[in-house]
Amino acid sequence: MTSGSVPVARCSILDITNTTNYWMRSVNVSLATNTSTQSVLDLDYGTIAMQGLSADSTSIMRTWASFPNFGFNITWESSSKVLLNGGSGMFAYGEGNTHEWSMPAGRTTGTLTLDAKDELAIDTDNSLTWYDRQWGYTAPIGGNWTWFELHFADTETKASIWAIDQPGESDKRFASVRTEIGTLVVPFELLPDWSRTWTSPCSGETYPLAWTLEFGEAGTLYIETGRDDQELCDVGQLPAYEGFVKANGTLLGRTAAFGLVEMVYA
Description:
Layout: E1 8-14, E2 22-28, E3 42-44, E4 48-52, E5 60-66, E6 70-77, E7 83-84, E8 90-93, E9 96-114, E10 119-121, E11 129-136, E12 144-152, E13 158-165, E14 172-179, E15 182-187, E16 189-192, E17 197-199, E18 206-208, E19 210-214, E20 220-225, E21 231-232, E22 240-251, E23 254-265
Antiparallel strand pairs: 1-2, 3-4, 4-5, 5-6, 6-9, 7-9, 8-9, 9-10, 9-11, 12-13, 12-23, 13-14, 14-15, 16-19, 17-18, 19-20, 20-22, 21-22, 22-23
């Protein structure tokens, strides 16, 4: 959902073996007839949905979408240790505090349908779902944020990395890293590579496509997107760049990672 005047549900799929294959859709939705206040979560908008399949609405969840050129039906379980962002699950965001926890590697089943062809079954043994829950103040007013979720190869290490900029406030840079001994919070410096950018014809925003993250003695990561155009944009709505990324370098001894970057100019 976006924070514009009309709620919007958005989804996208990227083929990482051939990044020219990309599917994206936005749907204006109404919250009036969809609620989770007194029942299990059931946000069904006809062509796209987010639903709870367990009594607590989070232990087992599902999302599905059905459009002429693509669709999906994905179920995941909260089978992964939770990552508390900022170490406690709360941090300064905008004009107040926000709360955020991440379930970074849930067991995943389901199907994808691409270009109206046969359904593709998700390989559960080699798949995972990152489910993020954030609530409270929703944006740094007049500022921007860059957020990375990273999965480090051949380890259970996951990282939720925030860079938040707001006029009149000090910049915030912290990585919440879930390791075998718990969640560690590591400060860093964000260095976008402004020689690699993409300008959106929809929003007019210019986004960096590569970054260096310097963590001091904890290491350095080099992150880049897998495709230039991965913006979710609708005229009159807040755009968001939601892109697949790969990372090299080291963080706390871990090397090579993949995940997602989110960039929003609020």
